């Protein structure tokens, strides 16, 4: 038997090391490729270097990327399907470019660039590093009042979109990131629409639900083609506040999709204070006004909602209390339309004077003496 020389052994070792290095490099390339959507491997966006995936959605995939000339970190969203395959998705993407280009607010993601490359539409946006708002509230153990202050900033950002004539239509915690400074940012306007245009149906022709079921409004759940407006966003904001303050969803999400849709359309949510007794009557009233089935009885915009939240935080009586006598009535005791009109007129006449006085700082509530039991400092669960 021939014994290999030292040179032969050394050569064999070097060969094994080389093979091992190639295997490691190959695994690294596979791992790098795995981080990219399979359909997007090999796509080059001129001027940008794509890194890892930071979000995958039904319409597109978002990557962290670097702008070549400046080295700025950005977010690049690439549509999943080619333009010739899904015209509705292309329409939504182009609409997102239009919408984001007109919005200028610290709480709304900024659009930098966009176009079509290798048959796919892409958007280049501000990179927001942060946590989903529900995760942030839980991790920071925010008190009720601190949670409302965060929510107020969110309402003001959504309100800016409403002022610009834009309905988001898909507000949910994963679309709201809170940065290191505690400021919320609204993302993903892929389902948004300008108020002035005719909207896409809430249910597609194939029966797929457009939007997120846990955060949808009764009019969206009912497939209403013409009735979805900025008040659908108000409903979604109410659902988000409900979840942030109680840790629970406003509606039971178990069972089939049709069953869940029926609950969203017809069932009243459980009182938030049932989940968390520290939620006082005024905060509960704000939440439940957002979640009214009849959109005419909700806050009529995110800015109107923001005003009431600010009034509460500043110690003033909230406007939503005007209507509280009706939405706290059990469904089985709901008065007839004629009785409702009479009661509404009487309550309005009696309360108008009180609210005019409450608008005067001299009539400002003393926390702990009038309706409030003092600042809500209890931490979230």
Give an overview of the whole structure:
The protein has about 375 residues and is of the alpha+beta class. The chain has 2 domains: about 40-125, 2-Layer Sandwich (Phosphorylase Kinase, domain 1); about 130-365, Orthogonal Bundle (Transferase(Phosphotransferase), domain 1). About 40% of the residues lie in helices and about 15% in strands. The protein has helices at about 5-35, 85-100, 135-140, 145-165, 220, 230-245, 255-265, 270-275, 280-290, 300-315, 325, 335-360; strands at about 50-55, 60-65, 75-80, 110-115, 120-125, 130, 165, 175-180, 185, 195. The protein has a 5-stranded antiparallel β-sheet with strand order 1-2-3-5-4, covered by helices on one side. A 3-stranded antiparallel β-sheet has the order 6-8-9. The chain has a two-stranded antiparallel sheet with strand order 7-10. Strand 4 and strand 5 (about 120-125) form a beta hairpin. The longest helix is centred in the N-terminal third of the chain and has 29 residues, at about 5-35. The radius of gyration is 26 Å and the shape is globular. Mean pLDDT is about 75; it is low at about 20-40, about 195-210, about 325-350 and about 355-375.
Q: Helix and strand layout, with pairings?
A:
Layout: H1 6-34, E1 48-56, E2 60-67, E3 73-79, H2 87-102, E4 111-117, E5 120-126, E6 131-132, H3 133-140, H4 144-163, E7 166-167, E8 176-178, E9 184-186, E10 193-194, H5 218-221, H6 230-246, H7 257-266, H8 272-275, H9 281-290, H10 302-314, H11 324-327, H12 337-358
Antiparallel strand pairs: 1-2, 2-3, 3-5, 4-5, 6-8, 7-10, 8-9
């Amino acid at each position: 038997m021939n014994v290999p020389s030292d040179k032969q052994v050394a050569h064999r070792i070097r060969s094994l090391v080389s093979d091992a290095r190639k295997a490691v490099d190959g695994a690294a390339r596979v791992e790098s490729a795995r981080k990219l959507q399979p359909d997007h491997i090999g796509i080059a966006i001129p001027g940008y270097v794509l890194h890892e995936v930071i979000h995958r959605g039904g319409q597109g995939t978002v990557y962290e990327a670097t702008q070549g000339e400046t080295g700025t970190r950005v977010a690049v969203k690439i549509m999943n399907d080619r333009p010739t395959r899904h015209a509705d998705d292309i329409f939504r993407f182009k609409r997102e470019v239009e919408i984001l280009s007109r919005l200028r607010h610290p709480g709304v993601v900024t659009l930098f660039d966009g176009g079509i490359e290798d048959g796919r539409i892409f958007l280049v946006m501000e990179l927001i590093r942060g946590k989903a708002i529900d995760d942030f509230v839980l991790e920071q153990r925010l008190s009720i009042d601190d949670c409302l202050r965060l929510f107020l900033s969110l309402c003001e950002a959504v309100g800016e979109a409403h002022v610009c004539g834009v309905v988001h239509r898909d507000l949910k915690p994963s679309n709201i990131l809170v940065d290191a400074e505690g400021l919320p940012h609204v993302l993903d306007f892929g389902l948004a629409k300008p108020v002035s245009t005719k909207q896409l149906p809430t249910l597609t022709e194939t029966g797929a639900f457009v939007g997120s079921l846990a955060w949808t409004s009764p009019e969206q759940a009912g497939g209403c083609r013409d009735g979805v407006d900025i008040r659908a966003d108000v409903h979604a904001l109410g659902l988000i506040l409900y979840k942030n303050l109680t840790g629970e969803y406003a509606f039971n999400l178990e069972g089939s999709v049709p069953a869940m849709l029926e609950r969203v359309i017809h069932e009243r949510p459980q009182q938030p204070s049932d989940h968390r007794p520290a939620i006082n009557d005024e905060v509960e009233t704000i939440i439940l006004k957002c979640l009214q089935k009849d959109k005419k009885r909700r806050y009529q915009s995110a800015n109107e909602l923001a005003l009431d939240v600010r009034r509460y935080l500043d110690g003033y009586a909230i406007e939503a209390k005007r209507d509280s006598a009706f939405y706290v009535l059990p469904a089985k005791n709901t008065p007839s339309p004629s009785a409702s009109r009479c009661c509404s007129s009487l309550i309005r006449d009696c309360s108008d004077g009180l609210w005019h006085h409450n608008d005067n700082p001299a009539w400002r509530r003393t926390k702990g003496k009038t309706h409030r039991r003092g600042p809500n400092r209890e931490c979230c669960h």
